[in-house]
Amino acid sequence: DTEVTQTPKHLVMGMTNKKSLKCEQHMGHRAMYWYKQKAKKPPELMFVYSYEKLSINESVPSRFSPECPNSSLLNLHLHALQPEDSALYLCASSQETGVYGYTFGSGTRLTVV
Amino acid sequence: GEDVEQSLFLSVREGDSSVINCTYTDSSSTYLYWYKQEPGAGLQLLTYIFSNMDMKQDQRLTVLLNKKDKHLSLRIADTQTGDSAIYFCAETLLMDTGRRALTFGSGTRLQVQP
Question: I want to staple A66 with a disulfide (CB 3.0 to 4.6 A). Which of A47, B10, B28, B38 is the partner?
Fold first, then answer.
């Protein structure tokens, strides 16, 4: 299995909703990442988990809450989002050092209404 | 993306070669990468080059690295309509935590005309 699977593919949520994005990989990668990509922009790093511990939080607002329940799963919990949070959320994984590149999922297209 | 610069758009005819350029700023980057993103999709790793190499060839793809000028390029030979996509160069930048993480350039939209 050489894939990163993200669910759901599309999500529409209201500003008062709570939802979660899920990411799964079975490549034995010990580093997992969340990126946010706005239209016509490059992906921007949000969080990095290394061996199931949060190692980088790029000053992301607390309405985004990551969780890494085990080495194969990565979640992003969403609460009280704003319309400007609408974007493509990409999950990726890599070997610990990431020197051979990251494997990305196809993303969750999030729309906040 | 502010540390890695790319031209925004490139249009070529099918069968021609495409050259996508990138300028990066972190001279300590050990590996440099090229990713492809098709509309509505995630990112696909195309190739990467180690910083002690000048060139790497992989089928239709040729990567050139000029470390002195911090310039990276991706040449696609015999460009096909299926190559139409956004191409991102990327490097692993040192973050405040002391850990490196993949940081992307602004992306170049390649349009291949039949």
Answer: A47
